[in-house]
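ESCALATION

Customer reports they have been waiting on this structure for their group meeting. Please prioritize. Original submission:
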Amino acid sequence: MRAALILLCLLSAFPAFAGGEEPITRPHLDMTAGARSVSLHGQTFINQGLIGAGRLPADAVDFLGDTLGSFSSLKIAPGSWKRVGEHYEGILWTLPDRGRNDPAANLFFDYAGRLERFRVRFAPGDGRFDLIADGGLELRDFRGRPFTGADPGAGTVTERGMVLPAPASGLGRGKVSIDAEALQFTRDGGFYVGDEYAANVYYFDRRGRLRGVITPPAAVVPRRASIGSQAGRLDFGSLQPPATGRRNNQGPEGVALSPDGRTLFVALQSALMQDSAAGNAVGRTNIRVLVYDVSRTPAPAQPIAHYVMQLPAYNDAGNGGAPNRTAAQSEIRALDDHRFLMLSRDSAGLGAAGNAPIVYKSILLVDVAGATNLAGTVYETGTASLLQDPAGTALRPGIVPVEQVELVNMLNPVQLARFGLSVEALSEKWEALDLVPVLEPDRPADYFLLVGNDNDFIARHCRMSGQSCNSDFDNDNRILVYRLTLPAPLR
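Update from on-call: job pushed to the front of the queue and completed.
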């Protein structure tokens, strides 16, 4: 078995990054037992490997009585992380998405938007990462009403002059719909949440009350086809694809604040509709990354920068065939005002339909320095496509994408086995990242990287809004812990 895995690793191609490497056509495995380093712009970053793991059972119940939806995003509360002897303690906040749902069957729940709170304890000596449920926080809109996970369809509600998605009738009627996918705290305990329905980024105070909205530029707003010179109507629902703007369920999946609290990055999960090769799931690699200056106001009207990133492409059968899928991004974590980590993954694993092999799940190191800034151009203020050819993925001349390199390959059978895990048993959706310091005086640039999955509320014993939502198997909530050495401490 080990020999076969090594052979697969050697046969694996590398991600289709801006540097021109080949796309991924076979399972992208890494057999490294110890540390690996990468360089970007002359600086070295070291992945010291997987050093810990934690688990919550799939049927865990949260503070509102629903089955816990695990980690569409997670963050350690500002100021809570500390070293206590040979272990670490902190408060972990996690973000579930819109509740148990099945868009293909038009199945949704009136699931209240919320954050889940945990007390955590990590012991590097044995790698054990423990989570103890400790309440949570329900999100409220400008009117003080709870949000809903129900699909808004064509419905909207206007609050403080902003048109927001809201079901016009039936489930969740009149409430603001939110499909929460990204979480980022500010230094004062407030926080941002990225939403996939409207592609908005919502700003909440520390009590969970909505205080501001970053609405996306025209290029990202989901709209129906235009009529003549008139822009098409807003299309916030998730059951029919819009003509332009964010793809269904592929909105701002990553939101990250620079350590100095001044720069907010917002990354779309995959390409906008107008930037996608027609009918081609591998033609969704060119995503938009928006950058906002939040030093003066937490909800600025316009981005100060706007970049393109090219995600990896892969073959979902892993058999050496041509790429036919995009490894969509699921989370980002800022390192400074121009670099961030990004989690890019396939759609295979526990919880996915079918039996496709797991091919690619990695954390990338991304640098926007040197990329073309599209802020204020027709690619932002209108719906002009970035593509040179509608059938391909090549960018128009003059558009330089960001640079990236793989830092952590999660498909490492050797390291996973230390914690009783295997590549084949990994969950489909790894969607959460955070960095916390190791707090060793002689290692000031060492950090623990926390990576969490989204189990989609899949459990044999599932309850949602007082109703049963049982599945045939359990998809446990998991966190993996890696140790990284950065070129310098984060500031």
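Sent to customer with the following note: Residues 2-11 form the longest helix (10 residues).
Escalation resolved.
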